[in-house]
Amino acid sequence: MMDQLMFWLPLVTVLVSAVAGIVIFVAGERHQRLRTWLNIAAALLKLLLVGLIGLLVMAGNVPEFRVALLPGLDLVLRADGLSLLFATLSALLWLVTTIYAIAYLEHSPNRARFFGFFSLCVTSTMGIAMAGNLLTFFIFYELLTLTTWPLVVHTGSAAAIASGRTYLRYTLTGSALFLIGLIWLYGLTGGQDFIAGGSLADLDLNQNWSLKIIFWLLVIGMGVKAALVPLHRWLPLAMVAPAPVSALLHAVAVVKAGAFGLVRLIEDVFGPSLVADLGLGLPLAVLASITIVYGSVLALYQDDIKKRLAFSTVSQVSYITLGVAIGGPVATIGGLIHLVHQGLMKITLFFCAGIFANFLGVKKIEQLDGIGRRLPWTSASFTVGALGMIGLPPISGFISKWYLGAGAVAVGQHWVIGVLVASTLLNAAYFLPLLKRIWLQPPPEQWPAEHRISRLESAAMVGSSITTATVAVAVGLLAGFPLSPLSWVTGIVTEYFP
Amino acid sequence: MTEALLAALVFLPVLGACLLLLAPASWRAAILLVVTVPLPFCLLPLTVLIADAGLFEMALAGHPAPLGIRWRLDALSLLILWLNVSLMILVGLAASARFAPASVEGLRFWPLWLLLAAGIHALLLSADLFNLYVTLELVTLAGIGLIATGGSGAALRAAMRYLLLALMASLLYLLGVGLVYAEAGTLDLYQLGEALEPGLLSATALVLMLAGLLVKSAVFPLHAWLPAAHGNAPGPVSALLSAIVVKVSIYIIWRLWFWTAGDWQLPAPGLLLGLLGGGAILYGSALALVQKRLKMVVAYSTVAQLGYLMLIFPLSNLLAWQAAGYHLVAHGLAKAALFVAAGNILVSLGSDRLRRLAGLDQRLPMDVFTLALASVSLMGLPPSGGFVGKWLFLQAAYEQGAWGWMALIALGGLLAAAYLFRVLALTCFHPRSHGHSTRLREPPTLASLAGLLLALAAIGLGFASAPILGLLEAAWPGAMAP
Amino acid sequence: MSTLIAVLVPLALVILIHAGPASRRVALFLAPWSPLLLLWPWLTGIDLAMDWPLLGLRLGVDATSAPLILLTSIAWTLAGWQANGQVDKNRAWFWSGWLAALSGMGLVLLAGNLGSFYLGYVVLSLSAYLLVTHARSNEAWRAGRIYLGLALAGEAAILVGVLMLAGQLGNPGFDELLASPEVLIDSPARWFLMVGFAVKLGIIPLHIWLPLAHPVAPVPASAILSGIIVKAGLLGWLRMVPALAADPLILGQLFLVLGLVTAFGGVLLGLTQRRIKTVLAYSTISQMGLVLIAFSVLFLAPDQRDAAVAIIGLLALHHGLNKAALFLACGNQPGQTRLRLLLFALPAISLAAAPLTTGYLAKNALKNSLDEATPWTWLDPVLAVTSLATALLLWKAFGLARGLRSSQPDRIHPAWPTLVAAALVAPWWLAANSNLVAPLSSYVLFAAVWPLAAAAAIIAVHALLFARLLPKLPEGDLVVILDALLEQRAPRLRFDRTAPSRRFINFKPARWLRRLERQQRQLPLAGLTMLVIGGLLWLLLWAPGWL
Predict the structure, then answer these.
(1) Chain B residues touching residue A161 (CB < 8 angstroms)
(2) Residue ranges of the domains in chain C?
(3) Angle of helix A329-360 relative to helix A396-410, nearest 10 degrees?
């Protein structure tokens, strides 16, 4: 009985939202009530299942689903510490995003399609989180591309379709290279599961050049989604999608999947020591640093709120890459914990940007003047997100920065501090003017496009943003708490660096 | 018993075709059912047999080899037989909605349909070159007849061009067969290997046969007839033509190459054939990208996808063999699904111009869903049969360090994504233009359902690869020098 | 937990202010008095160590922070009392900034480890922005911008230092920091921190925000900015830039010279100004020069750390109270009556170190420790000249204060005289407690008096001197350069073409491809292709035979 549970649980957890998605598709546009409840129920159920897995893992079990896809190639879904981190994050944020999205899209067309793909998208993310080897990861990674594309082009405007095209061009090219790298790797090693510390480390392959090329092929594949410069162009364009999609792209699923993949690649496939031996960490760290600074500089030049946020994501997600690329336990903690922190903060920001646009038609930065008086709670959440992005204590962004900087110093990479500080200053430069406009400037006589929003909807949307903002503060403020993400990540990292 | 089953595979459809022409209109549906439903049940025991014995041979009407007709069933034939039978049934479901058996159109359509099936079955079982010629002719002619049932001017013109080229190809093939007979004194596919020494005459014979077959299977740059024919035929017909008819001539090429000429050292011509395949992938994809009609996109996609089947010649190892076989099956299912869906769309809108497809996902959700699923497999995205095929191809290329082929395969996947996502974007996400009202006739649910089942099967192949790969491994003419 | 209330209560009040009208009334009633909570941890001496907030929180009071806690609880409370009566515009935002800054300051004062201090410091720096820009005039926005720019630059330098320390020590307590010289000696962290905190202190050339921010901020806000908040930088120095025995002597000498430059530079620049709050701001800069001189003693004689820290504490308390008193005066029409002028003059004289004042007390202690720490005999007269210079500057301020009067008589706010009184007494008490009261001798008295006499002489002929010699410099002097740089608007570079390209479907060769394909369909061409392919194949098949 227990064995059966251990076997099926990961699969069921992954498929819950897929089933919901399919039912939503089949039920069609008219069954709104069914759709709403199904969405929420699936999100709750998924959270519950992830929680259950969490308990089982804490009790020392390893739930694992395994089926042969090709002879010798297994599809493996397995829950370890790292996958639980990502799974919990996306399950939680999915719940919030679902509630937000239901309210956000209340009166727009094509909702069945939207929520159907929305659910499938989360299925893929969960699959990525639980993937137990690189092939499984790749499969769900591709599935994620497929299921997010309809969301990106959802509005059907020319800009949306063009951005969807760009999205595909980047992601599919990336995944073609990913596939070649994958084949190459499988050719060298056969199908290896993810192992803490790297499955390649013990093989003693003496194929350094091949391994280096494979590494970079895979980095490109994942770097596209993680928006590493110069593969980032799709992300700012994709901000034409509705706000919940942006939240999903930037916080829950897509860029996170890329960054998570890089973490897996370095920690579980190559292994930190092999990466260090091959001299791969430093170039990747430099690339991540360039991305961090470049994204921030570009953010300065955007006058559209969501676009600025998008470039900010480009910059912030690379913190994760930077952390794992630097190596060493402390910096790795910094990178992994930013996976959680960036998600919380960025989702808050996009929720708020969506509320500004949806309630008052405010989309440009100069339209933000005085909005703090009109939408105080939203503005407060936005402020929390923005200050956290800058990395100010006690919001969670600070914890990431602290660990990244300290970890870099600990392994003697002092230049990283320069990058972090530059990013902090640039973040301040592009976020603080927004805060000043929001709180200190007088409001205009007339908002660009005021919409009537029912009380329930506004409560759902504003409530979502407040929730995520609160959590973003709480995980920073209570970072030392035994159940905090930080403690969790510390536990994971001690496995990699015993 | 086994002999009877094999005979049933061929003669049941023929019998059905005759009965259809004779019986009253109201019986036709029942006749169709009676002759098609047993087919998979014939295949089941045969599968068990092949799984055990690997091979089954029989001499028709008791005459032995040089004179009589010999049938031979091995794993490869069996696999393609399964593909054909499934397609016959599922696409047949879709077609039955369009060509009601009791109607006049039905009378034109279904006998040809059954003849096509019989021809394909006989072709797959044939063990000598002349029988292959006869059955291939049967298949071609039935196919041309089916194209013509579309009735439009374009369809007739396309059928005519197909007919001319196919006749020319048949003549070339027949010439080759004649030369072979003169040289070796036998036409048995599997005995020729020893009888035929490499030499000027046998090489010429092989080239003649290959050239004819390349035309019939529309390998780039000899594909000129295919897009028009497949693009203008009725949906279910296009489905069969693209999914199986062009494949059977490639099947003959495989047989000739790996069985008859199996122990010749042929790297250079193999490379040429591979390059033709590569050209097909690039050129077909590029043209699919610039088409203005849905069915033309799908037709050019066939041109491109056939290219993969040629990659077996330069790569030429077990993995590549499995890859090609898997690709053949997966592509067959996915392409049939695409054409069935495209046919449904064409029927219900009265046009398949891409511009007019905007907003279609609201009106024909099931067909669009089929389109999307089949596209996933064609692009080789996981999890799907297409992905498994692509994965195996890449692995095969990797094992031989063939980086160029790896790059080509990856690029092919990207190009497929490019033209298929273009279609999906146009159908689902472009806002509907209000200028012209389009006539909308709901396609029969049965037709949509059949398409969906095909697409699901294509996706499902991604999960159940082991038995098929096992069959293909058994079919690999292992003595072959790589 | 009780230690935390000094930090948490102000934050709770901020929330109450924004929660609703009724709670706002309660919050505003309580707000001015919340600094008094800082006395609680000092008096009880309860230390706090918690692991779960942030990266570990340690709070407590020690000898280094005690004078500053005394300063904050007196001056911030009294300034708040006056603010309660005098700030009536945008009250919610003013008090939010005020209380948040207080909370940050409280954390800075009580912090016992790196992380807690940094947290407090950030909160303090950011919320002070709300105080600087309270007027919301163009001038205020500009001052706020420059303040924030410099503050963030300072934060950046501090962050570098903090992260470097964190990389080697984790989240060290300050006692651990002092106990690990082997880490500090090789690391540039201390110098980043030194520069970062110098921004807050207004050490030349990082001073430019002070003369801009003080005049535009409301009077009570200027008082705490100048009197207290700048001292947060000082505490940063004392905590995180410890002098090590292995430091070369030249470092201490460098700081000494820098301190002198700031002390004199502040005065000279201040003399060119025309607004009283600007003049007072420059006076603060000059006085922080003195603080830097006192700080250099730590490096000149690292073994006498405790004594030097006590002197610095005295100096800070003395300056904080007196300067806050002078700023509070600016809100009370000091030119209205003689009594008010007297109340203005008292702290001014004290700052100029007249005998028997607390300024004298502090300066004398500083002089004595410098005498011990350096062999330089020229320092004594130079230090005396700083008093002279301060006297001149404050005379200027006094002259400007006389002009501050209104036609309608208004009541004097009781906070001001209370602060003046506290400024007279509190430093004496502290000095007595830390044994810094030196016996009075005629020599000492002379040394204290002559600078003032010289100042009086100069003032007597000031019309001749200053009117001609001193140019009128803009407030913030060096900011002109910064402005010039910033006025060159950042170039509008387009790094990224975000406009989507639409060439995908209609890509160029489309038409060409279609034409090619149409020709391919012609039968003769198809036949020819067949021949070519067959021929090629034939050649290749047969080629091995030929060769």
Answers:
(1) 425, 429-430
(2) 246-488
(3) 150
